[in-house]
Design a protein that fits this description.
Oligomer: single chain
Order of helices and strands: HEEEEEEEEEHEEE
Number of strands: 12
Shape: globular
Structural class: mainly beta
Helix content: under 10%
Length: 276
């Protein structure tokens, strides 16, 4: 289960830019391996390293898209604005492997789903700049509601950067969470309080700021890519929780995939997918 959910977490990676869809296969299938180094949870000093297989699935439809952004349905699209449904997931955390959480309940695997509004600020063949606002409901796999999160951010894509064949992506923006979401990760109930872990109640509000850098390139039937993620919890409403052991951290990953099948049918022209 941990491995499956970590694979799903790849949907949380920053937008890995690629050139326009025009003339590309409608769908592509492949398989690959990803090496990930992630903190147990935001604010933890313990890292978990995964060497994981992952499915490489791209579908360039007009109303359903599946790629390294995740899986999403497109409800509305225009040259300036689009509305879609996006979903992501996160892996479980064993409290036995995180000293500050020992004796506390494990963090269960979660998934997030909700609408994403995208405003296209700038768009040329060489670069695209979008303002995106995602609002998602957070639940466990048992469909127990945890809370809500909101993430407005700027996303810059540079396809085929300087004719190098490399596609670059950068995303920057703050996160916000409600009381339920912050409680799940950062509360310390009285029955779990210790001398080094006093009782704490996390409020709703600002959750920190994220910076994502990503790159990928196709070499024929092979895809290679990687990302860096810097997160600052400085000023977050829960930064004084005893479960927050660091206010800044890095995550990273590199991967390679082999694309073994693709459709003969081509994706619709970019104009028909104005807000991809």
């Amino acid at each position: 289960m941990r491995r499956i959910l970590t694979i799903l977490c790849l949907g949380l990676l920053p937008a890995l830019a690629e050139a326009g869809t025009n003339g590309k296969p409608l769908w592509e299938l492949g398989a690959g391996t990803y090496l990930l180094s992630l903190p147990a949870y935001p604010g933890a000093t313990e890292y978990q390293t995964y060497l994981l297989p992952f499915p490489f699935v791209i579908y360039r439809g007009q109303f359903l898209r599946a790629d390294r952004h995740g899986i999403r349905g497109v409800f509305f699209a225009s040259p300036r604005l689009s509305l879609s449904l996006s979903a992501t997931a996160s892996p479980p955390v064993s409290s036995a492997h995180v000293p500050i959480r020992r004796g506390m309940p494990n963090l269960q695997p979660t998934f997030e789903v909700g609408p994403q509004l995208k405003l296209h600020l700038y768009r040329t063949p060489q670069a695209t700049l979008d303002l995106r606002l995602a609002i998602r409901s957070v639940q466990t796999l048992r469909l127990t509601q945890i809370g809500w999160v909101a993430a407005p951010y700027l996303n810059l894509n540079l396809p085929d950067w300087r004719d190098s064949g490399w596609n670059l992506g950068l995303a920057l923006g703050p996160d916000f969470g409600d009381r339920g979401y912050h409680r799940y990760f950062y509360d310390v109930a009285p029955q779990y309080a210790t001398a080094n872990r006093p009782t704490y109640r996390a409020p709703a509000g600002y959750s920190g700021t994220n910076l994502y850098l990503a790159a990928n390139r196709r070499f024929g039937r092979f895809w290679v890519g990687g990302f860096l993620h810097y997160d600052s919890l400085q000023g977050a409403v829960f930064e004084h929780s005893p479960l927050v052991r660091t206010r800044r951290y890095l995550s990273a990953g590199v991967g390679v995939a082999w694309i073994f099948a693709q459709s003969t049918q081509r994706a619709a022209p970019a104009a028909a997918q104005a807000a991809r």
